[in-house]
Amino acid sequence: MREKINKTELLIWIVGAELFGAVSALIGGNFGGFYDTLISPPLAPPGWLFPVMWAVIYGLLGASAYLIFRASGGNTGVSVKIFALQLILNLAWSVIFFRLHFLWAAAVTLVALTIAVGLMVLDFYRKRKLAGIMNLLYLGWCMFACYLNIGIAVLN
User: Fold this and answer.
1) What percentage of the chain reaches a pLDDT higher than 90?
2) 1 lies in a domain?
3) Which among 36, 62, 67, 137 would be 20 to 30 A from 6, CA to CA?
4) Nearest CA-CA partner of 46 in 26, 64, 31
C-alpha cells in the first residue's frame, strides 16, 4: 500500500525551507552588489541563476525533509542533526561570503557544507531513497559552488 501524502504538511515543510532560504539571503547581505564586483572563474553563471537554483534546492530540501520526518517513525536523531548542521553552515556561508567578504573562510565553510550535505544525502537515502535522490542537485550545486568560491578567492 502506498503511503498517503499529507499535502498540508508537505507544503509547510516546503514553505519553511523556502523561508529559511529567504532569511539566509537577507542576513547574508547584498548578493548582487558584491558578487558583481568580483573576478569570477570560467563557467561562473550569471547572477540571476543563483536565486532560481536556491529556490529549487530549498523546495526539494523541504519536500525531502517531510518524507524523512514522516517516514522515520521517531528515529530522526541523526537526520535532525545533519539537517540542522547543513542549514547552519548554509546560513554561515552566506554571512561569511556576502556580508563579511572573507573569501577563504567562506571556501572552508562551503567545503564543510558540501560534506554535511553529502552526509545528509546518504542518511536520507538509507531511510527513504527518494529523499536522498531529491538532494543530489543540492550536493552538485555545493560542489560547483566550491569551485566558484575557491576560484573567486584565488582571483580576488
Assistant:
1) 78
2) no
3) 137
4) 31
What Å distances lie between residue 119 and 78, 81, 122, CA to CA? 10, 11, 5
In-domain check, residue 2: no
Read off the pLDDT of each residue in 11-27 and give the average, rounded to a whole number. 93
Residue 24 lies in a domain: yes
* pLDDT of residue 73 exceeding 70: no
- Is the pLDDT score of 74 beyond 70? no
Three-state SS across 23-88? HHHHHHCCHHHHHCCCCCCCCCCCCCHHHHHHHHHHHHHHHHHHHHHHHCCCCCHHHHHHHHHHHH
Residue 62 and residue 68: Cα distance in Å, rounded? 10
Residue 91 pLDDT: 95
Report the mean per-residue pLDDT for the chain: 92
Residue with cell 568560491: 149
Question: What's residue 1's pLDDT?
Answer: 47
If you search the block for the grid coordinates 542518511, which residue do you land on? 123
